Each structure stands twice: as structure tokens, then as C-alpha cells.
Amino acid sequence: MQTQSLRDAAIDVIKTLPVAASLEEIVYQINIVAQVLEGLKDKQNANVISTDDLLKETESWL
């Protein structure tokens, strides 16, 4: 699976926002897309852990 470049994703996001969108809203939406793309890249590179493993790892934090 090939993921979209951040630049192209940012352009797509901006095109969907209202013309009067604030800079803050634009940056917020681009950050969400960047985080999703990063997560997809991590998944593609098998750089993920299961929920069970995460819960076991963080159990000692409480």
C-alpha cells in the first residue's frame, strides 16, 4: 500500500475546508492528517504493538 505524501494530503485537506477557515483550523486539520499518515507508515513498516502488549507495558505506570 502506498500512502499519500503529506504535501498532497495537506492540499486535499485545505480544498475541503471553508474559504473562511482560520489558520488555526487549517493547521489543526493538517496535523490530524499528518498523524494518520505517520500511523499508516508505522503499520506498513510493522512498527506497531498490540493493545494487549501496550496494556501490559503500561500496567506498571499506574
Low-confidence stretches: none
Q: Estimate what percentage of residues fall within beta strands.
A: under 5%
The structure class reads mainly alpha
N→C terminal distance: 38 Å
Radius of gyration computed on alpha carbons: 16 Å
Strand tally: 0
Element layout with pairings:
Elements lengths: L5 H11 L6 H22 L6 H8 L4
Helix pairs in contact: 1-2
Describe the protein in words.
The chain has helices at residues 6-16, 23-44, 51-58. By secondary structure, it is an all-alpha fold. Helix 1 (6-16) crosses helix 2. The radius of gyration is 16 Å and the shape is elongated. 0% of the residues are buried.
Overview in brief:
With 62 residues, the chain is mainly alpha-helical. It is built from three helices and no strands. The chain has helices at residues 6-16, 23-44, 51-58.
Keywords for this entry:
62 residues; mainly alpha; 3 helices; elongated
